[in-house]
Design a protein that fits this description.
The chain has eleven helices and 52 strands.
């Protein structure tokens, strides 16, 4: 573009035209009406195929998923000749011990078959409470030793309480009231639901215990009389599929003396298929045509498949305007296949994506405001949303006339003038000679009236209106489209659990109305998956909740999982600037440059010696050079997450010993030496695994422990260069050139045009102040953003040093109190890296 500046009013600009809508069903929102073949457990509210014991066929059939074990299923059975069948119901004999004198030394049984890993079991027994004290009624487990020395085992007591043991260590105790103190800190939420579930209560004359390995690292225990709970094996990491919960081993039991034994055992098996409906709900807005996108949140390990759709409820008792409900179809393993495993579903979401449309362009692509410009000041800070351009305009009536002409008289000049002075969010695009600098959104205009002291200009008489129009001044601040992200509020919950970082970022960007063509995320973002929160009760790890700002969610993704990456809008060779999340190692053409695109010189002579053509040297000069150091923000870092199963903190810690050590010799001190401990913590409940905590910690450690060498220089505006680009500064007297990566810049465009609306462009002076960070060398990865406002060394340094007075703890998705409570609880998993 030949002009050094172009300002277009009302170009075509893509905006959000239709909000996204969604419906979310978690474990507490399933509708039993019409559902079949499925069950929701009463502890975690997880949806699964119906286990055999909760079907009425359990007490009337002995085939298929209702098959039971007899005495012959045990290769070892204490005093085997004194065990007899006892027909309590039509579902198969219980095995009762009838030895003379009763159980005097304890009764043991070891299965003939070796169970495949993670095969659940059913244990049924009649508890005989022979004393008033708390005594063990039965013990059982999975191991090849026939006892609890290895593997997982359980003990159930006469008061209905239970214990979980692993490798001969007690790993969980649960009360007879049926609640689990280690699971969500809540009472059982569902009770008897789909297919019937166990209500907590006191032990009675019969107890049936279902033992279901599920949810990747848990053992669900549902008892018909006593403790029902879900035990989380803390030795198994969160977010990892295919883990062994129960060993590939024999199943054993032990009835301690003097308790009587009337027992029945069976493989825990499931229905082969089932259908479940979410509670009827209402689309918030009229849904568009077509089917919504489905997201199903389920465990990583459970076999089988789940598919979903949205249907219209058969009845509409609440007269909903846009009724709908989610329907899920579950399919399990083939009949008789062991281990018998169901899909375990936590929640389901259906959504229609938001829609976009372009604002109408004025004329062929916008009205050129250059002839009416009196000032153009711009500043680009090194933080997301930190780009602002302030325009000074004159002659609003003349601009209104030009708009009216471009609209072929569709609006009067006076009406178009008032619209210019009062309308907000008006599209504005600003170009330099290389391309579009800013695809902007206008803030409300500020305007000032003045009065002419004469009524002639260059001998031409002026009308009163034109004379008045000449001395009216308008100031409009233009921001990039991050302004729209700051103003977007989520109206429906939108979980990001289980999405890759790139998918999550693109989804949120599209939801707030930034089209995919205006967003770039480095490919490496697809290699990290946001951990899940096992949200059967609605406890998602990363939830865009109702009322959250789109800008807050995008910034949280950046700050938590990519804090060293470039984040912001970057101009492109063609088209509008793109919202970018760029990996420092991204070597593609869309990444940040690895070499300086130009060299600036300290004098005309140096520029001439450097090959700059005569008469153009002034464009390649810098007029000042300042340098300062920003000290490391921290050298002792903690990232605190939250285990979604029990709420306990997960802590990853890393310290820079060399920076902390006050005894290091003067000549041996590293560049980031502070000689003391300087702490920083990042608290985010969305971090639900130690792996994701370490992932975030590595970024923060790189970012916060480095000293920052900043350089400020003044020069003529550098067209085509932006935050993240490299510039080489030639130094006098044989000093080595300094390569800096641009962090911020600000400047002004002076003498844009002739006074009076003449369209000719006079000599333009565009003095700018740039701040860059010294790169280690060309080709080295760029250093992460400063994330502070300010475009001068003094302003940046002042904000940087003011951080010393602030608590070096930041938290996301919660207030400070909840962060303090979480950080103060017993730590689940703490590791040094």
């Amino acid at each position: 573009m030949s002009s050094p500046l172009s300002i277009l009013l009302d170009p075509g600009q893509v905006r959000l035209s239709r909000d996204s809508i969604s419906t979310l069903v978690t474990g507490r929102d399933w509708d039993p009406t019409g559902s079949s073949g499925v069950w929701i457990d009463p502890v975690t509210n997880t949806l699964m195929l119906q286990p055999g014991p909760v079907n009425s066929g359990w007490t009337t059939s002995t085939t298929g998923i209702f098959a039971k074990w007899g005495a012959g299923a045990f290769s070892t059975l204490t005093d085997s000749g004194n065990w007899v069948g006892s027909a309590i119901d039509l579902g198969g004999d219980f095995t009762q011990y009838k030895g003379p004198g009763g159980n005097t030394s304890g009764l043991q049984g070891i299965s003939s078959a070796t169970l495949p890993a993670d095969q659940g079991m059913v244990v049924e027994y009649f508890p005989y409470k022979l004393t008033n004290g708390r005594v063990s009624q039965i013990e059982f487990g999975w191991s090849n030793t026939g006892d609890g020395t290895v593997g997982v085992s359980m003990r159930i007591y006469s008061d209905g309480s239970a214990e979980v043991w692993k490798n001969n260590y007690l790993v969980g105790s649960y009360s007879g009231g049926g609640n689990s103190p280690n699971y969500f800190d809540q009472m059982m939420a569902m009770g008897a639901t789909l297919g019937g579930g166990a209500q907590p209560g006191q032990p009675i004359g019969y107890n049936r215990v279902m033992l279901i390995p599920c949810r990747d690292r848990e053992l669900l225990v549902v008892s018909s009389g006593g403790a029902s709970f879900c035990h989380v094996f803390q030795d198994l990491p969160e977010g990892t599929g295919g883990q062994t919960i129960l060993d590939n081993a024999t199943f054993w039991f032990f009835v301690p003396s003097p308790v009587g034994a009337n027992l029945r055992f069976a493989y825990l098996q499931f229905q082969q298929s089932g259908t479940c409906f979410g509670a009827p709900s209402n689309w918030r807005l009229t849904p568009p045509s077509g089917s919504p996108t489905m997201q199903i949140y389920r465990d990583l390990t459970g076999a089988g498949s789940v598919s979903g759709s949205v249907v219209t409820p058969p009845t509409n008792p609440y007269s909903l305007a846009h009724p709908q409900q989610i329907e899920l179809s579950l399919t399990g393993v083939s009949a008789g296949t062991l281990p018998a495993v169901s899909p375990f579903v936590y929640a389901a979401r259906a959504y229609y994506s938001s829609g976009t449309a372009s604002t109408p362009a004025l004329g062929t692509g916008g009205l050129e405001l250059l002839p009416y410009s009196t000032a153009c000041r711009f500043e680009v800070s090194d933080t997301i949303g930190g780009t602002r351009v302030t325009l000074g305009l004159m002659q609003p009536l003349a601009i209104g006339t030009a708009i009216s002409t471009a609209l072929s008289g569709a609006g009067s000049p006076e009406a178009m003038e008032q619209q210019l002075l009062t309308e907000c969010h008006r599209p504005l695009q600003i170009f330099d000679e290389v391309g579009m600098m800013l695809n902007g959104v206008a803030e409300p205009a500020r305007w000032t009236d003045g009065f002419a002291f004469d009524d002639t200009v260059s001998g031409s008489p002026l009308t009163a209106a034109n004379s008045y129009d000449r001395v009216q001044e308008i100031e409009i601040e233009v921001r990039d489209k991050w302004k729209l992200a700051e103003e977007f509020l989520f109206s429906d919950p939108a979980p990001l659990d289980g999405l890759t970082l790139s998918a999550a970022y693109l989804l949120v960007a599209s939801t707030i109305g930034i089209p995919s063509g205006e967003v770039y995320v480095s490919a490496t973002a697809a290699s990290f998956t946001i951990p899940e929160g096992a949200p059967s009760g609605g406890e998602f790890a990363f939830l865009c909740d109702v009322g959250d700002k789109g800008s807050e969610i995008l910034d949280r993704l950046h700050q938590t999982y990519a804090s060293t990456w470039f984040h912001g809008f970057r101009p492109q060779p063609s088209g509008p600037p793109r919202l970018c999340l760029i990996d420092p190692a991204d070597a593609t053409s869309s990444g940040l440059p690895s070499s300086a695109s130009l060299t600036l010189y300290e004098s005309v002579e140096a520029a001439s010696a450097g090959g700059i053509s005569a008469g153009s040297e002034w464009k390649s000069l810098y007029r000042s050079f300042k340098q300062t150091v920003l000290e490391p923000e921290a050298n002792d870092l903690c990232v605190v997450g939250r285990d979604p199963r029990g709420g306990k903190p997960i802590v990853a810690h890393k310290a820079d010993a060399g920076s902390q050590d006050p005894t290091v010799g003067i000549a041996l001190r590293p560049s980031n030496w502070l000689g003391s401990v300087k702490k920083y913590s990042w608290i985010d409940p969305g971090i639900t695994t130690i792996g994701s905590a370490q992932y975030a910690l590595d970024f923060l450690f790189t970012r916060l422990t480095a000293p920052r060498m900043l350089v400020e220089w003044e020069c003529e505006y550098l067209p085509g260069l932006w935050r993240g680009d490299l510039v080489s500064l030639h130094r006098p007297f044989g000093e080595a050139a300094v390569t800096v990566r641009i962090k911020t810049f600000s400047g002004v465009v002076d003498a844009v045009s002739s006074f009076g609306g003449d369209s000719s462009v006079d000599t333009v002076w565009r003095p700018c102040r740039y701040v860059g960070e010294v790169a280690v060398s060309e080709g080295a990865p760029p250093i992460h953003p400063l994330d502070v406002l300010g475009t001068s060394l003094s302003g940046i340094a002042a904000q940087w040093h003011s951080l010393k007075a602030l608590a070096k703890s930041q938290w996301m998705a919660g207030d400070r109190l909840s962060a303090q409570v979480m950080a103060g609880r017993p730590v689940l998993n703490q590791q040094e890296f």
